[in-house]
Write a structure and sequence with these properties.
With 338 residues, the protein is an alpha+beta fold. Helices cover 41% and strands 24% of the residues. The chain has a domain of 207 residues: Beta Barrel (Thrombin, subunit H). It has four helices and 13 strands. The longest helix is centred in the N-terminal third of the chain and has 115 residues.
Length: 338
């Protein structure tokens, strides 16, 4: 019996072991399947999250594209408007330049017309009269006694040829250099419309001559506001002087302080250019004592033709002489420009 039971146990043991193995395998497979299902759920969940993120990213990209498109449209519109504005500004500038050019042409034409319009004798005299000076000179001996006097007329102007400004009164040289070549002790200079008397001491050397012509320059070292105002020029000082040779018959006005004339005031005489004599113009206008050193004006061109020069002392000439500005500035080595 005991032996039989033992045999049955021995026969049943393999069956039990087999059942245990099979059962364990089934349980292991079930665990694996459960884990696999859990992983699949996690993966599905992550995929859903990723898809959601992908959708959000896609939406953002679409929004960004739309915004970029709008920005591009705005930029294009701005660029077109800017280009149109630039064209308008360019056209406006062209129109302004054209208008300015037309205006300048009209102004130039008007200035040319006015410049070529002859001025009346009265207006010419009134314009130049303030710059014509009366000059009175005295000579003294070593004891200080006045032994001679003289005088005449002159024309004031400013220049800075040597980069230093000078105020000169141009006149005839014989007015302040007597026959013995003695300079005066002093000369006083007075202008119409100004009560100031400018005294020039010749010992200071404030004069010069333009040899060999009968031309001299007396310097006013300290001009006052009045003299500065009447000697101001727009371009160069030589614009006051004629740079051409006048025609025969051209009208001339002589301004100066003749001894036979209005006492203390300027006198004007009128005539024409009657001929030429070397550096001189011959004129029918009266040139008398005291007129020497004044100015001879072209009433047509409104500029200074030269200096009235009294040639024969002690007489009143029927035909006077005008020392031409061309001769003066050629000897001075200063170009005449107008």
């Amino acid at each position: 019996m005991h032996i039989r039971i033992k045999k049955i146990q021995e026969q049943a043991l393999p069956i039990v072991l087999f059942s245990l193995v099979i059962g364990g395998g089934i349980h292991l497979e079930q665990n694996r399947n459960a884990q696999s299902l859990s992983f699949q759920k996690q993966i599905s969940t992550q995929q859903a999250i990723l898809e959601k993120y992908a959708q959000e990213i896609s939406s953002l990209q679409n929004t960004t594209r739309a915004q970029n498109k709008k920005v591009t449209e705005v930029e294009n519109t701005f660029s077109k408007n800017n280009l149109a504005l630039t064209e308008k500004i360019k056209k406006a500038d062209q129109i302004n330049k054209l208008s300015e050019g037309i205006a300048n042409q009209k102004i130039l034409a008007l200035e040319t017309t006015l410049a070529n319009t002859p001025k009346s004798l009265i207006s010419v005299i009134q314009e130049w009269k303030p710059r014509v000076a009366k000059i009175t000179c005295i000579w003294k001996n070593t004891s200080g006694r006045v032994y001679a006097t003289g005088g005449g007329s002159g024309f004031v102007f400013r220049e800075n040829i040597d980069k230093v400004e000078h105020t000169w009164v141009m006149t005839n040289k014989h007015l302040f250099l007597d026959e013995g070549r003695y300079t005066p002790y002093s000369c006083t200079i007075k202008f119409p419309g100004d009560e100031t008397l400018f005294e020039v001491l010749f010992s200071s050397g404030n004069y010069r001559t333009i040899d060999p012509l009968d031309v001299g320059l007396i310097e006013i070292v300290s001009p006052d506001a009045y003299v500065k105002s009447i000697t101001s020029v727009k371009k160069v000082f030589t614009e006051s002087f004629c740079a051409y040779t006048p025609s025969l018959g051209e009208k001339v006005a002589i301004l100066g302080y003749p001894t036979i004339g209005t006492v203390g005031d300027i006198t004007a005489t009128e005539g024409i250019i009657s001929g030429y004599d070397s550096d001189f113009y011959i004129t029918s206008a009266k040139i008398e004592h005291g007129n020497s050193g004044g100015i001879a004006l072209s009433t047509e061109k409104n500029c200074i033709l030269g200096i009235p020069t009294f040639v024969r002392k002690g007489e009143i000439e029927t035909l006077g002489r005008i020392l031409s500005t061309q001769a003066i500035f050629t000897r001075w080595d200063v170009p005449l420009t107008q």
